[in-house]
Amino acid sequence: MQDDIKKYDTWNKSLVLMLRSKFFNTKQGYGVHAPTEDVVKEHKNVFYEDFNNEISKVPRHIIKIVGDLNAKIGKESLFRQTVDWFSLQETSNENGVRVMDFATNNMVINTCFDHKRIHKEMWISDDGKIKDQTDRVINDKRHTSDVIDIRHCRGADCDTDHFLLVMKYRQRISRICKMKGKSRKKIQCKKAE
After folding, report:
1. What number is the average pLDDT over the span 85-108?
2. Whether pTM exceeds 0.70
């Protein structure tokens, strides 16, 4: 895995970039930890401005965003372009609206797969009463079909209040079209003798 990573940068404690390249493809993954709802609005504005500035420097087709965005994204028809039917929440919070504003050309992949409620819950409160879906995987719409499945493993103990997110991903190689033109003449060896 270490040979695959070309570059690793951090901008602040909430934003990490990992540039991964293997053979023919280059993917740029961002690990994000966004501020919660109760943080002062100015801090959230600064975070999302920094985040948008970093993302805007990179071509859209190589970006994948994974992290705790602290965003409740509901099933509102307003977000139907970027969210599928299988979100855990019914309504969005303020962070959810901010994420949806950012993800207009992308797709929130977590909401594309119909799983049991227990596999959608990825965060649990300290008292164990509140279970929520705050971790998100955002990908370019063109590559949505490359993700086969996303679910959470509740048995893996990571010493955190979040569950381990597992994503099955299939990278596709585009086929090169055959060159059009004159084909080579076949030589018949028997006639040459």
Report:
1. 78
2. no
